[in-house]
Amino acid sequence: MKTTCITTLFWPLSMLLLSDESQSSKIEVKCNFTENNYSLIPTDINKNVTILDLSYNQITLNIIDTRVLQTYFLLTELYLTENNVTMLYNNGFANLSNLEILNICRNSIHVIEQGAFTGLNKLKQLYLCQNKIFQLNPDVFVPLKNLILLNLQGNFIGYFDVPQLFHLELIILYGNPWNCSCSLLNLQNWLNTSNVTLENENITTCTYPDILKFYSIKTVPYNAECYSKFPPPINEDLYNHLQSISNSTFNSSLNNLKNSEHKLGKSWAFLVGVVITVLMTSFLIFAAIKCPVWYNFLLSYNHHRLEEHEAETYEDGFTGNSSSLSQVPDTNSEETIVIFEKLHSFVVDDDGFIEDKYIDTHELHEEN
PANTHER family given for it (predicted)? Predict the structure, then answer.
């Protein structure tokens, strides 16, 4: 069991330059808590610790551990080798902005959430070797802008897409069951075109398919069909160029969208008016076809309202004609009924004309 904390004080150039300004200093605090059978990260560690070694314990990096870990924000190196870590949670190291080395080798990690390394802007070396990682999303490395070393040795990774790690100098991938199908072509192109060095290249070989066994993943031959399916990876210069094009295209599209919305606002009322007019016209045509009674009524109605003097003349004439009619001795009841019907009804002849009901009774009597 080892439990030690050592404080080292460096005074750079303290004896070479004499001035009124205070001399710069750097304090390095190392704490070693290996082989203590800890199941949780201790809370009583010196808060100024910069190098913390918790290897060979039973730590799981659960929620309690991550909360305690955030209090050691001055850490530059953290070693958690051979513990019981099975999962790296989002924002598990978010407050460790000074961390430069993180070693979590020989655990049982099988899940790494996408935001697990958020906040590690200064991280330079990441060791994830000898875990149980089957699949790894390259986006988990996006926050690691200064990473120069990545160790993934001894996992169960068969496929790995190209990570956007433009400053990476060394990558360790041997000890994984690599499936050298067409899907691994992008990784091969990236290894051959970037400045990264593949450590132990000769033993970083394919496991599948059998025909490509023992080929290095960096030199395995691919057929022309694979090259047509998977274009070469994006390097840093091309990535920045595409980003600038994407931004300019987005701004142009946004302006076009605003202009189209402005034009649409002006033509909207006109479009609604046209639609309503078409609908009303269609309805009227349908009504005229399906309702001929109304159509015939409109065609046959040719009368107009009588003026006041015309109404008086009509009343006088009708009264006189009625008295004259009553004085005719030879008219029988049948003739009277016929005359009444002619007086009080419209008769539609075959020629389409409507017979006027205001017939002079004297002329009618003479005709009879």
Answer: LEUCINE-RICH REPEAT-CONTAINING PROTEIN 19, LEUCINE-RICH REPEAT-CONTAINING PROTEIN 19 LRRC19 FAMILY MEMBER
Residues 136, 111 contacting (CB under 8 angstroms): no
Is the distance from CB of 79 to CB of 98 less than 8 angstroms?
no
- Per residue in 132-165, pLDDT (tens digit) is 999 988 889 999 999 999 999 999 999 888 777 7
Beta strands in 227-292 (DSSP E): none
Q: Pick the more confident residue, 246 or 172.
A: 172
Could you tell me the strand order of the sheet in which 101-103 lies? Answer: 4-10, 26-32, 51-53, 77-79, 101-103, 125-127, 149-151, 170-172, 197-199
Instruction: Report the distance separating Cα 288 and Cα 294, nearest Å.
Output: 8
Structure confidence by residue, pLDDT tens digits, 237-254 = 444 544 554 455 445 555
pLDDT in tens, 94-125: 999 999 999 999 999 999 999 999 999 999 99
Closest CA to 318 of 263, 365, 272, 359: 359
For residue 230, the one-letter residue type is: F
Only one residue has tokens 């996006």, namely: 142
Grouping H, G, I as helix, E, B as strand and the rest as coil, residue 206 is strand
Q: What are phi and psi of 133, to 5 degrees?
A: -80, 120
Quick check: helix, strand or coil at residue 145? coil
Buried-exposed string 52-66: b where 16+ CB fall within 10 A, e elsewhere: bbbbbbebbbbeebb
Distances (CA, A) of 190 to 75, 149, 198, 221, 341: 33, 16, 11, 15, 108
What is the reported pTM?
Answer: 0.60
Q: What sign for the dihedral angle of Cα 195, 198, 199, 200?
A: negative
